[in-house]
Amino acid sequence: MPTTDMYNIDSVLSEEERAVRDSIHRFVDDRVLPVIGKYYIEGRFPKEIVPQMAELGVFGANLPEEYGCAGLNNVSYGLIMQELERGDSGVRSFASVQGALVMYPIYAFGSEEQKRRYLPKMASGEIIGCFGLTESDYGSNPSGMITRAREKSDGSWVLNGAKMWITNGSTAQVAIVWAKTGDSKEDTSIRGFIVPTNTPGFKAKDQKGKLSLRASDTSELVFQDVRLPAEALLPKSAGLRSPLMCLTQARYGIAWGAVGAAIACYEEALAYGQNRVMFGKPIAGFQLQQQRLADMVTEIVKAQLLALHLGRLKDAGTFTPQQVSLAKRNNVNIATDIAREARRLLGANGILAEYSAMRHMANLESVYTYEGTHDIHTLIIGQAVTGLSAFE
Ligand code: TGC
Ligand code: FAD
Fold this sequence. Notes:
CATH architecture of the largest domain: Up-down Bundle
CATH class of the largest domain: Mainly Alpha
Number of domains: 3
Shape: globular
Largest sheet: 4 strands, antiparallel
Helix content: 40-55%
Bound molecules: 3-thiaglutaryl-CoA, flavin-adenine dinucleotide
CATH topology of the largest domain: Butyryl-CoA Dehydrogenase, subunit A, domain 3
Number of strands: 9
Strand order of the largest sheet: 2-3-7-6
Radius of gyration: 21 Å
Number of helices: 11
Oligomer: single chain
């Protein structure tokens, strides 16, 4: 039995939180781990797991039951993300995008009609969504986006532009698209739109050649005179603040998810080290490998405590985006280090898809970059502590 939980964090979780975590743990063991290496090599997301994810209440798990969601607290939601990413960052990404980046904006900025129309079907996995914020020239700085939605005299809209690096872009039935609605270059009137992906003028093209997050669809979206009814607008979306609020939700989940990837790598390395005999004894008996394992488990315990406390703050309604940045930045960073060290401990076997370390190592490079790069979170924390913005 691995000794990952050296601080008995389990004991401060509620019975419900443990039950939620354990059910997703079993799902990942039974349905994800046996197949993920194959999907990763083939560069495909394992779509057949979506109905069971929905059944387990994974999509929008922290949104209210009245919209068909599980209504769980934020710690349970985080534990779900942890367990999914223990399987693969692509699987956690699928759930993050669906819940935090598509269902959340509909919940937070949508009309009652939009919520009733979309949220139950998204919770049940009947409708899959994607989130289009990034553009090819506006990644870290989405405020410069050039995608435009122009309002017609009858209240309908016409959308033109393109988005890049969009998770689930080619699988989604709806896209949440962020666009400017005014004419000037300095325009800050960013609004969100629910765009059915079968609307004429909407195209999604898969991005090929990825060496990271291979078990996840990533696409470019192109909008050419896409005509949208007035009801496509998310009425309460207002400015860049709205998509950034969605990012706060997704970054929160990533702070937990990265811990899951780190646990997978550590436990794999520990088991391997205990069994692999070299120079007449298990390599885990050598001081150098023990230092590796001690560093890994120490960082995992610290990252879990950070995620858990953040979750409790979120449940209390007092967490801040800067606290989320700190946790995303730290936990993804330690997970990338742990994945690399685990891969090294495994020797040649560490480069095989049969083991998880190298897959996690490559995946975590995307996680390090998306949802605000490590550098951007450094600057967000820098601004919080100095009161000086590096972005102005
Ligand atoms: P700035 O002037 O700082 O902010 C504009 C308004 O937004 C407010 N705000 C936030 N609100 C909630 N949560 C946050 N995290 C917020 N950050 C800022 C802010 O208070 C302000 O409000 P108001 O009322 O005064 O207007 O904006 P800026 O243009 O200077 O940008 C700041 C910066 C660089 C930090 C921001 O642009 C940023 O975070 N950039 C990174 C972009 C990013 O993370 N993109 C992610 C795209 S989605 C994705 O990667 C999905 S991956 C798939 C998966 O998750 O699996
Ligand atoms: P850039 O912004 O060009 O950054 C390049 C480098 O410059 C980075 O090292 C960065 O840290 C650094 N840099 C930038 N600005 C500064 C600064 N001010 N000071 C110091 N250094 C700086 N986006 C979506 O909207 N929806 C999605 O579903 C989505 N899914 C994604 C899936 C994957 C697999 C990947 C890889 C990306 C995804 N993204 C998505 C896009 C992601 O959010 C962006 O890649 C990210 O925000 C960074 O933008 P960029 O790649 O353009 O890098």
